[in-house]
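Holo model, flavin-adenine dinucleotide. Inputs:
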Amino acid sequence: MSGRYPDEVDVVIVGSGPAGATYARILSEEAPALTIAMFEVGPTVSQPPGAHVKNIADPGERSRAQTLSEGPHAQESTDRVGGIVKTSQRRARPGTFLLESGYQVEGEDGLPVAAMSSNVGGMAAHWTGACPRPNASERIALLDADGSLDRLLDEGERLLGVTVDAFDSSPYAELVRERLAAAEDAGRVASTHIQRMPLAVHRRGDGNLVWSGSDVVFGDITRSNARFTLWDESRVARVLIEDGRAAGVVVTDRRSGENSEVRARFVVVAADALRTPQLLWASGIRPDALGRYLNDQAQIVFAVRIRDLEPSGEADAPGATGLSEYSGVTWVPFTDAMPFHGQVMQLDASPVALAEDDPAAPGSIVGLGLFCPKDLQSSDRVEFSDVETDGYGMPAMTVHYRLTPRDREVIARGKEEIVRLGKAVGEPLDERPFMMPLGASLHYQGTTRLGASDDGDSVCSPQCEVWGVPGLFVAGNGVIPTATACNPTLTGVALAVNGARAIAAKSAES
Ligand code: FAD
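Output:
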């Protein structure tokens, strides 16, 4: 042992969000002889490790868990409400922290609210859990031809504990869906009709909702795997490359400041779509496509009061997890004809505070959100400095990001479509919808994209192994090569299943 870490393992996983947890789970299931060390720069904030903070019943404890996740300058505190406020425009959601600098270059659109989470479980300890499948042009043709994408998505749903019935008791959900369906279903095939949102949530025996985090992805099989260890407050500073292949990592113990080398046959970097390319850069692994094709889903929001509503006595008041359940979560699937991913949800389930709910008719206000796919550009990228460092001492980031004329057209159409959909459900609270500042979706993708060959336009293979660096795998939404509008975590997890199986197969060969 060097410090608190082992000298050598078979597999190192960097990052404990759902992508990293997927590697731990699949390897625990399919290659149980492998020793695995997972390193997470942030602290453990929930139990079991990686659990969603919304499952913490005590509001003070929940708030503390959120604060501890908010990056290198996170302060232990129980008295704050909401996220960090930098300016009236730049707010971070609870449990996340904003990129401090480099988020917007003069003359460009930038990603003013680009954000991250640093905690065991990553952003999925704070997420909304929407897990739609990609559709039409969102899908990855390379993995679609033989049906493997759907099989991987099935696995992703299993690992994330995705259900569609958690909100079936919501009294207004059916009404919202019926009205949206009347306005939208004509011309759609059944699989893209208005429907219940697949969510990473289940209902416990006592009726309470349990939101899936990395704890669900790990599952008991990973937690009881004696060859798996998760080390929190451990920053991976560098991936070691020897003879052209991955050979381990350099880890800094954030408690002692001590640096250690941990050798490994396989290294998986699952450190989110901004910090995965950062770690590769810091390690001198700098393929042309690294950090490029960065894309975020512009997010348009609108609120309406449900029309002609019979007040319902059935719904519960906000429960221990701070969520009332009047209108459930409805999905407007992406199609090539209607190229937006729509999410329609009870106001207080929405990650965006749109308005105060109506105390006279609680649950009568629903928030609509449309996510837009980006017009992918190689010039949209995150760059890293060889000189400046961020709050963790890693290469500082600069985001180059521009909306193209086509992006502006899509956004303008999205604003029309959301008003049409909103008016089908009820009376708008405002005349116009608004677009969230860029970066608000928290769905950054493309920065370590997969591709068919090492042609300079991708970073890794369809199995997520970095071109030209055997044994080094990348994981998370950065691997997704298409312009998705749907929430990407399910797809990111599905791709991680593919990578984990490649490691299981290769380790059996060697
Ligand atoms: P993350 O979950 O971000 O985990 C990466 C981890 O790597 C972090 O814990 C980080 O601390 C760690 N790390 C980074 N660098 C290092 C390093 N050098 N050394 C060690 N560790 C490191 N997605 C959806 O699909 N549906 C939703 O409904 C949805 N809603 C969301 C709502 C909110 C409020 C938030 C915050 C996010 C939401 N998301 C949603 C996004 C979703 O949470 C992410 O897509 C998902 O967590 C990405 O998983 P990941 O494992 O790739 O990265």
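The first helix runs from residue 18 to 30. The longest strand covers residues 234-242.
Archived with the compound record.
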